Amino acid sequence: MQQMPRKKSVPKPKHYKNAQGQENIFVSGWHKTKYGFITVGCVTTKYTKDGGKGWLSGIRCKVLNQSTGQSTLYWGTMQISTGKVVISEISMVVNPSAANGGYFGTYLKRKR
Is the entire prediction scored with pTM above 0.85? Predict the structure, then answer.
């Protein structure tokens, strides 16, 4: 019997206009860990500012543990060209343009 291929946590970026006519970017993804099934939704807000060098700061990220029902709000930074969102407080990244089609998971900075 052949085993089904494992699903991947492919984040999807979406561009939309809010009620005030401002264009927002929404990035969502999911990740299965030993702690449970985790989903994330990151969106630009009125507090989003240009952080320089192609990055936006003040991205609101809602992280929800589907297994326990615990929801937590974090602030992250987004790279405009790729849609990558880094949540440094919990060391996680949502990258819709990763080489494997997209990635949501642990993010560790390389030591130089």
Answer: no
